[in-house]
Design brief:
Two copies of one chain form a homodimer.
Chain A: H1 7-15, H2 17-32, E1 38-39, H3 40-47, H4 51-64, E2 67-72, E3 82-86, E4 92-98, E5 102-109, E6 114-121, H5 128-145, E7 153-160, E8 164-165, E9 170-171, H6 185-192, E10 197-201, H7 202-214, E11 221-226, E12 230-236, E13 239-241, H8 273-276, H9 278-286, H10 295-303, H11 307-331, E14 335-339, H12 347-360, H13 363-366, E15 370-373, H14 380-393, H15 396-406
Parallel strand pairs in A: 4-7, 7-10, 11-14, 14-15
Antiparallel strand pairs in A: 1-3, 2-3, 4-5, 5-6, 8-9, 11-12, 12-13
Helix pairs in contact in A: 1-2, 2-15, 3-4, 4-15, 5-6, 7-14, 9-10, 10-11, 11-12
Chain lengths: 407, 407
Amino acid sequence: MSPRTGTGNTAELTTADGVGSLSRAGDLFQLLRDGKARTRAELALTTGLARSTVASRIDALISSGLVGPAGEATSSGGRPPSRFAFKPAARAVLAVDVGATHVIIAVTDLGGNILTERRLAQDVAEGPEAVLGRIIAEATSLLTETGRAPGDLAGIGIGLPGPVEHATGMPVKPPIMPGWDGFDVVRYVQRSLPVPVLVDNDVNIMALGERTAHWPEHDNFLFIKVATGIGAGIISSGELQRGANGTAGDLGHVRVPRGDEVLCRCGNYGCLEALASGPAVALSLAAQGLKAENGGDVLRLVAAGNLPAIQALRQAGRDVGDVLATVVNLLNPSVIVIGGSLGQAGEHLMAGVREVVYRRSLPLATTHLRIGLSMAGDQAAVLGASQMVTQHVLSPAVIEATLQATG
Amino acid sequence: MSPRTGTGNTAELTTADGVGSLSRAGDLFQLLRDGKARTRAELALTTGLARSTVASRIDALISSGLVGPAGEATSSGGRPPSRFAFKPAARAVLAVDVGATHVIIAVTDLGGNILTERRLAQDVAEGPEAVLGRIIAEATSLLTETGRAPGDLAGIGIGLPGPVEHATGMPVKPPIMPGWDGFDVVRYVQRSLPVPVLVDNDVNIMALGERTAHWPEHDNFLFIKVATGIGAGIISSGELQRGANGTAGDLGHVRVPRGDEVLCRCGNYGCLEALASGPAVALSLAAQGLKAENGGDVLRLVAAGNLPAIQALRQAGRDVGDVLATVVNLLNPSVIVIGGSLGQAGEHLMAGVREVVYRRSLPLATTHLRIGLSMAGDQAAVLGASQMVTQHVLSPAVIEATLQATG
């Protein structure tokens, strides 16, 4: 029995007749994305397409640079047939992680391999034109550095530290990003770099990056970022879930029982962020007379073996675990990865998370559940930004549109 | 910009070459599922398939009965070409809703239209052989009643009131179903009715049925059942989400702050089910000296205008809302439907839910959120069971396998 059906596929095909033929051609390329070399005859056999159709599509894919010759097959008499394969190095992707006070810019190939990377100190509160302008300038120099022309760029992926309407790429009332609300990031970037630009919030692309790089076989996957803010990136049935308005995963303002007296900056009491974020833990330590203003201070105290700081970090883990226990019952993931500056700093926070999740969640949901620290670390976001771009620009519909435009 | 890519499609095509050709043939049928009549030439143009391939596949689909002639197109000279369309009445589906104390059996067509329906009083605790034996006997008589032979049956969908491993169809430690743990439902039913049998928990298929029948345009949808148990069916990005082990949506044992003193039958304190389920509300009323043992008693008191019962039902709604506030922040659905015997009984429970969700969830996530009562009512489960079967038996891979077996 194989009850899962390809509904994504079905939905795409039944919307309009035109889409059917688009995905036919795109599929030829999707087959080749696994990197395996094939002859025209093999491709015709596998896809059911006419041999003349296969031949003309392979020509178009070669013109685009996405596919190239890959040696010859064994001949059954006569000139041996040519083989073709996907060339991930054909084009470059610009992957950008905008944080509250930093920007990481990477150039990757279409296979998600990072070719070069640059880190900048940059305050997101300087506004979109300052931040994006600097990114564009640095990107051009990075492309040159890797021997790439702007024309080699397949697309740009950008993660922002706040809610983003993914369909338009516009930030929606982001709390720590003055001047960004409703700013047309895509159009602004495309004025200088006219390629597809995809924008999402940082936690979503961290989830995408961590899962693609380290947990590709896990279709129900959760990434939790614990830093100045707290949020989750959700992958269910192998797909990143953004919800109806793109706000899925916003766990920072879920109520934690312990916090009934603690006022959050959102106006409610007892929000997770008011208890377990970097600034919140620092505040609780400052109240005990310790010198701590932010998450960085907390981590320094913990590294120095300060007992109250260790206890506070573990309690923050319990608070995060309290919310995750509900999430585990609801979504039944097989892996939870904890990242973000506070989250990836070590075992104390994770110990607290594990303690509560394994106590409070259903046994059926936790039997095979793994909870671990981020392995991608501070590269999770750029890896995810690259993945977001290749998912889009190498999709059947976009490949076909590209081929029709260039052919 | 259209950033959502058909990753489901991609994944399917890149697993193995063989799958590519399977989905090619299935796709021809997927096109026709919209009910629109098309000529062979139109199908060849749309799919990119060779005309001879289209002709032989149409012949196979006609042999299967799934597709039939549907008039003629206008001729451009010579004999006018024939048109073909999907025939939803070609086959029948058996849709079964097993509850704690009832069974509903329906016969539908492949379009989800209920042809006939029967309700039985039946205790699930009598065990799988008694319950399934009775279902098989009734099904045979229902098929005869609608003029169908067992050979017309395309598949059987069954919803059970407990956790089910969807891939195998086996119940997994279901609390109210003695004798069912690990029972091979699929094999038992197939001994009498040798067709595809798909099994899932009742809340999942209620979500599928309610959404398919009444909210098809909503891709991020949540169904909450409030009855003897409490659970959720989650549809994200248009797909039912079952999680890594099939336990997704199990909200009954999420902790509610108000309930810290209340012991649940699972051994934890403060579970939602221990506060807001039918028996829990009845217990709280009995403690006030009212005569109430179960959800039915609560509903009778509420219908009679009993003030403590109305207050208790509204408080149960607040408790459910407390958990849903977290779910809304996490999943950002556009619609929440409340069903189940207690849930669909009226406005009091829903008023409590709305009160807390709109107060505690993020404004961004609730701006367009709709919360309503079930419209499918007690047909939600059979509608969903039918939909689960047609999603499977009409999928590209299964259609192709069927055609190859019969052709």
